[in-house]
Design a protein that fits this description.
heterotrimer; A mainly alpha (about 350); B mainly alpha (about 300); C alpha/beta (about 500); A: about 350 residues; mainly alpha; ABC transporter involved in vitamin B12 uptake, BtuC; two-stranded antiparallel ribbon; about 70% helix; about 5% strand; globular; B: about 300 residues
Amino acid sequence: MIRLEKRTQPSGYWTALSPILAVGLTMIVGGFMFWALGKPPVEAIRTIFWDPLFHPQFADYSRPQLLVKAGPLILIAIGLSIGFRAGIWNIGAEGQYIMGAVSGAAVGLAFYPSQSVLLFPLMVFAGALGGWAWAMIPAVLKTRFGTNEILVSLMLVYVAENILASASAGWLRNPEGMGFPGSRNFKQWSAVYNAELLTGTGMHWGVAAAFIAVIAAYVMMARHIQGFNVRLTGEAPLAARFSGVSPAWIVFLCLGVSGGLAGLAGLFEVTGPAGQVSIDFGSGYGFTAIIVAFLGRLNPFGILAAGLLMALTYIGGELAQLMLGLPGASIQLFQGMLLFFLLATDVFTNYRVRMLRREAA
Amino acid sequence: MDPVLLVASIMVSATPILLAALGEMVVEKSGVLNLGVEGMMITGAVMGFAIAVTSGSPLMGFAGAAVSGAVLSLAFGFLTQYLLSNQVATGLGLTLVGLGLSALIGSHYEGQRAPALGKLDMPLLSDIPMLGRMLLSHDIMVYVSLALVAAVWAFLKYTRAGLILRAVGEDHASAHALGYKVVRVRMAAIAFGGACAGMGGAYVSLVRVPQWTEGMTAGAGWIALAIVVFASWRAFGVLIGAYLFGGVTVIQLNLQAAGTTVPVELLSMSPYLITIIVLVIISARGVQGAPASLGRSFHASS
Amino acid sequence: MPDTLLSLRGLTKTYPGVVANDDVSFDIGKSEIHALLGENGAGKSTLVKMIFGLVKPDRGEMRLDGDLYSPGKPSEARKSGVAMVFQHFSLFNALDVAENVALGMESPPAMRDLARQIRAVSETYGLPLDPSRVVGTLSAGERQRVEIIRCLLQGPRLLIMDEPTSVLTPQEVGILFQTLNKLKSEGTSILYISHKLEEIRTLCDEATILRLGKNVGTCTPRDVTARQMAEMMVGSSFAAPEPKAGAKGEVLLRCDALSMPAPGAFGTPLREISVEVRGGEVLGIGGVAGNGQDELLMALSGERLAPKGTIWFKGRDVGRDGPSKRREAGLLSGPEERLGHAAAPNMSLTENAVLTGARRKRLVKNGFIDWTAAQAFADHVIARYDVRTPGADVTARSLSGGNLQKFVVGREIEQDPDVFVVNQPTWGVDAAAAAAIRQALLDLAARGAAIICISQDLDELMEISDRFGALNEGRLSPTRAVADLDIEKIGLMMGGAHDMEVVHADG
């Protein structure tokens, strides 16, 4: 018989090992899944995890894509991880991401075709503000009425998607677009185009922001009293109160930061890789970022690594779709499984597994 | 618009959420918060559709959907009850897995049509003017869902097993001290919730739409979660909540079809906005009836 | 002996490091209310657990009605006719009375019959209780009735009651006593556990007194005075407190008719608490658990904000200030619950040092935590208070209760408070550590700080306090100099009889 014993101290060894174990398990089970789909399992795994980086033919194209995909994932996941640490579950980052993009783009387009150098910074600010404001809705409702932030933030994703639809088909539609939905293309507007900063790397302002966010989050969580208070609230709410931390402030802080970062991610995406506000702009980054946050153990540098890994599965998945005809949805399932296995292997971090011959009397 | 058709379509539109919310209510009554309703629903939708198309029997489809929802929920149960993982994170994971799984399975079935689930033709009753067509000439699942409401209500209120389930959700430590098997009770509740969510999903793909499109449950699982709160964890409250929500959906769809001056997007977001508003009203009044152990992991240390 | 129901012979139970019961023997007669008297930690609960089948004795035997009796688990005890009403009820708040009763029974009848039986029993024994009421809406006394009726429905021969009056109002105590006397007249024996002397004198036929796990004597309570029983209970340790010399300073903390509503359904409201403490003085606050101790601490620490003008610190109204502001001003506190309230279980001792020490110890500069300084502070507390731990980097959860208690009390004292409010400073702490903590509190007072020590350990309060008051249902009795007190007066203060007149409940 197997028994779990709570560790007095979370195991540092397992904290690091369990994500690796989870990735391994996902590869094995995913391999079986590909095999069941009639695809060569080893080749599929290699196509997803190896070829995007090292394939002689595709690597040149896909390597830069790594940062392009990882940037928004990391930026959003960093914000989410701060909330998750405090036990505040913002799962509506997708909505904040969309609202950041829409509001930033709207502010920019209001000045079209200005070439002012101030315009892009203004849009960045508006994007962050849009995401922040969208996240403030669950924050206010939670602190004022005690409404569950999980459900509200999620419902707001659907609301945001409808706002996005109406923006791309209506009030932000390109007047010169011959009636097609979608805003003006930012790629053709040099003053606000969030272009690659270093050619061939995929590095754009959003990726730079993600790196800054990683470092800032690390410093905040490790050294700053606000980060300490966030962790304290998550660990022991009563002790946090005793220490003098206001629970409402932590709610505003966590939702505000995660909303703002998600909004930033949306703005950098819409002015860069996406290029315009369009109906299919929401690509699920806000949800995948939840996996990234957990896979990275809610640790900023862990999230950096997890974001890159998750970006790899996106690009590798596309490649596998192209090369092996692997269905796109299998990658989505693959990512979901990864989170599941991670949560399962997490048991070793907090519990010691004991095998017992018989139940001790 | 024809009131007969209106009521009839509200019943159809409410049934998926009713089933899912009812199942989730039982799960939460046992003290477990499973946020994976959406994932179990969409999996039920695709499995139910696939099985119904393959077997030609919509009822087989519903049975298969119930089984697949239950199997998926037991994965959640294993993680949260035996490996003691965080219920919020695991529920989210379940939703993500369900969305991926359903998209994968469903790609073969896009564009196909499901075999129709026959309307129940009750001799005489269905011929009653107005009422007959409004309430008494639906498919069997509508009545199954209504019967399930009564059954869950009676189970929780009158049976010893229902009492034990509530006791476990209320205070797992006391229940354990009195000798009840907390984890086993919860696993059973989780499986029931999964089966209900699966059937609810199948109702979307087999009756309401009826065909398979990716992501077709469109947040219904999340709304089911909100309805449990709205219902204050009571079976008939779930019924009222689901039918109210069904009403909002039908009215907003009808307004869209009628081409009013209200923007389409505003109409399509209205169910979600209304859900938020309802949640706020409920929480401002003070959430009542939440099981005291809801969402807390149970680890029998002694 | 034909009229003995339960006889205990030589019961011994040892836990690592402690002998909880040492060769305890006594008899409980049929139709007898037998008191088991002793201080916290005297071994009462271990003894009772053995009788109820929760703990197996190491040595000794029990006979029930002449037959050997050794229950392996509570259900066996119940089958033999032994029932128990716990001090902390295992009740489900959201369920109704009948459902709660049913959950505690092996094979309950149908709900409607059960409701009828509950009504019948509650009428017979004068315990008014509506089977359809939801338990969460009941008062503590009514909740206790649920447990009692649960027991009575199984027709017990012996009913064990663990500190039953600690949660009751005086009126409810009266009702309970009538019930118990009726049960007795019908032939049921009752083992009544308490440390309230007057109560035992009123109710019980016989009394067995435990001290440090030993049976130190049996007496007939009606024939002895409360004082005699008290001396048997506490032994020589209850020396007349020495009046403490030394001039007292200015009033540092004053509560002015402090009233606050109960925090949630099961809390206690604070009712017009007026008290003041001076520099260099230790004010001891006693009382039975659940009479507002936690609530008073939370009001003084600032975790719950008090109404304007009810809490004055050094002449300034701090009622509306939060914990940080009060701490900064010099008003510090130490809650009872170590894990989760005074300390974050999964965080390191260094981090737990920051929890309250951030400002006064200047561990935070411009918003950034100085981890070196924090660790130094934690190390200092560890060394100064002899906290046994491999280092400051282990989690609070991994420390033993006593060591963590030394750490959290030391953490506050080392911040040089002007006023220190502490709840149960030595609860669950071994004797040596407890003595160290008490000494630290006295030293702090000697340096001119005012101390409010809330405790359920009367010895402790007598040892360190200058003045004493008792909390009863959220009210604080007028305080008196410890030098003027004796055990009888203290008991009366704790029972809420502020005017110090001896009140006897009707037997």
